[in-house]
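Structure in, sequence out. Go:
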């Protein structure tokens, strides 16, 4: 039962910081225009610094020679997710089927798994750089393929500045540095700067997400009770149980199984409402899918992880 409490506390930490962002935005302490600037700071500077510094400190190609297989395993995960999405999307009503499928397929693959892994194994866990490498292609697919879930596909263009994003560049550069043993040539003060800047990434991101959520809720719209119930059941329960069954059958190494189950259990990526609006979809229901799945995950993720630990005990 201890693992349930640890995972629950990790998810509550995430939720608590997000609620702080919600509150300070509601009180006007954090204006909307400042929220946008902080978002650029977090995504384009702080988070890449955190990724780069973490790989330098915790990733060793010699100790993990099969690291190059992780992005390939991500494609396998994405393929199974796509099949499950194509099967379950028809349970949604036709008018919002694109939004349903988009939020079902694109999971919050970095931030929530990162918080949970840090809470269970510590911030110096080797699972963290493995997560970065596993998820390296996720932003590329997200920003280049989201429009395919909507009928008016021709109205949106690929934004290469988001596809070739700072997180991807930081991950690739850090892996190269480790492969060629160039870390010793980086001055200590540079590494310290990266670690300090990276340390503010997660709290800053969660404050921004909480503030953005308030701004979205303020724009009242129709509430899709039936669609939300169907979505939460499939996304938060069916998806992780399906992947757990697959993991039990395949019996991969613990580190890979851990990343797989976390990817399957987390809510949708928080950027889906933004890209839904860009593609001419229903932003309101995308917000409701993200919010409802996120709230329910406070219970569902610890339960899923408790079940996972029964079949894959921590080494």
């Amino acid at each position: 039962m201890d693992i349930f409490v640890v995972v629950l506390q990790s998810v509550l930490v995430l939720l608590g910081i997000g609620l702080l962002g919600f509150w300070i935005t509601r009180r006007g302490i954090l204006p909307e225009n400042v929220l946008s600037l902080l978002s650029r700071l977090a995504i384009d500077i702080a988070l890449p610094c955190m990724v780069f510094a973490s790989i330098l400190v915790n990733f060793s190609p010699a100790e993990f020679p099969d690291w190059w297989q992780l992005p390939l395993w991500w494609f396998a995960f994405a393929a199974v997710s796509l099949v499950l999405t194509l099967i379950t999307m028809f349970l949604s009503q036709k008018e919002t089927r694109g939004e349903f499928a988009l939020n079902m397929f694109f999971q919050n693959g970095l931030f929530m798994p990162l918080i949970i892994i840090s809470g269970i194994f510590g911030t110096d866990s080797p699972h963290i750089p493995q997560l970065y490498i596993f998820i390296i292609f996720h932003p590329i697919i997200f920003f280049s393929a989201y429009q395919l879930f909507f009928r008016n596909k021709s109205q949106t263009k690929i934004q290469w500045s988001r596809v070739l994003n700072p997180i991807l560049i930081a991950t690739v550069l850090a892996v190269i540095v480790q492969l060629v043993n160039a870390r010793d040539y980086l001055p200590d003060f540079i590494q310290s700067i990266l670690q300090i800047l990276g340390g503010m990434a997660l709290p800053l991101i969660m404050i921004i997400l909480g503030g953005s959520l308030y701004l979205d809720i303020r724009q009242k719209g129709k509430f899709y009770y039936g669609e939300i119930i169907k979505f939460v059941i499939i996304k938060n329960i069916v998806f992780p149980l399906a992947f757990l069954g697959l993991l039990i059958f395949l019996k991969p190494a613990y580190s890979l199984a851990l990343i797989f189950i976390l990817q399957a259990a987390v809510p949708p990526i928080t950027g889906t409402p933004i890209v839904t609006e860009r593609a001419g979809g229903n932003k309101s229901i995308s917000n409701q899918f993200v919010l409802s799945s996120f709230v329910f995950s406070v219970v569902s993720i610890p339960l899923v992880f408790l079940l996972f630990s029964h079949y894959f005990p921590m080494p």
